[in-house]
Amino acid sequence: MKLLSRAEEIVLTAILLLKGTAYGVSIREHIFEVTGKKWSFALIYDPLNKLTKKGFITKSESEPTPERGGRRKVYYEITDPGKTALMEIKTMHEGVWEKITNSILETK
After folding, report:
1. How confident is the chain (108 residues) per 10-residue block, as mean pLDDT?
2. 107 occurs within a structural domain
3. What is the distance, to the nearest Å, from the Cα of residue 65 to the centroid of all Cα atoms in its chain?
4. Which range marks the domain in which residue 47 is found?
5. pTM metric for this prediction
6. Taking the CA of residue 82 as centre, how many other CA atoms within 13 Å lie in the half-sphere pointing to its CB?
7. What's phi and psi for 28, nearest 5 deg?
8. Which CA distances in Å does 2 have to 15, 51, 82, 85, 89?
9. CB atoms within 10 A of CB 37
10. Within-domain flag for 57
11. What is the pLDDT at residue 76?
């Protein structure tokens, strides 16, 4: 099992949920919506590169558009191994947290 870093996990879940519309800006916006934290693009693109190398995502380019100064968007899609990695990390998290209750975490 290839473990995901927390950043890879968050980026990968964003790609999964964005269903074909995942690119740098939409991933960043999604992460802000679910975490309340603003991530820099560097914090997003490093995991994207690692996830691509691991084969957990693929990327494709759009056609150039005048609004983007002739640049293309790079879209990301999750692969079957990426989905498997997410399920494995979810199962691992559940096992780690299974015995921990709110009462244990409360401070007095």
Report:
1. 89 96 96 96 95 96 79 94 95 86 72
2. no
3. 26
4. 6-98
5. 0.85
6. 25
7. -60, -45
8. 18, 11, 10, 7, 9
9. 9
10. yes
11. 98
